[in-house]
Sequence to fold (224 residues):
Amino acid sequence: MALEAREHAAVVTHALAGHVLTELRNVETSQVEFREALVTLGRVCGYELVDSRFPVESATVRTPLADATGPRVAGLDDVVIVTVLRAATPFVEGLLKVFPAARQGVISASRDESAGMGAGGEFPIAVEYVNLPEVRERDTVIVADPMLATGSTMVTVLEELLDGGRPETCLVLSVVSAPAGLERVRERFPDVELVTVAVDDELDDDGYIVPGLGDAGDRAFGTD
Fold:
């Protein structure tokens, strides 16, 4: 199993996930390569979630020659994926290769950079757009955002998402996370599971993850 419980979060330790993350970190990686890498990493993370978080049942089917019994993953039709705009768009594209029947929601939430980081390490967050499907108790909800830095954005997103009730399982999936942000989300939402590809060292004075990979949205969409 390549999803390993660590101090701050469950970490995707699959070799391909690490390989792709190295390409994402590289300042020489082009915009197109960066987007494609996010798509690939979304797919790898999706496979690891299926392998570690979804039950497997036995099913009997008819082949052209005889009956055959084999495994069938349960719960794939009860998945909701929430994209935190905009950086998560290519990341979710990869997830949808694994969960094609997932119902999708989007939340546009961003931190006010001009306000600066507060003394407690948080930013004020502006929510500009919310469009969510019905979330049922039996659902597995995956909230995807490549960067989990201070945790301010993710806490706000979860407040919007979970205001109407809690699903059976809610996962926050990120590529790179900072310990401070993971702790903030965990303190506010202890029942939400945190999954990431890497837990980096720290945040700088501007609230960016170090070493990180830069601004995932800018690098994926070619903006400054």
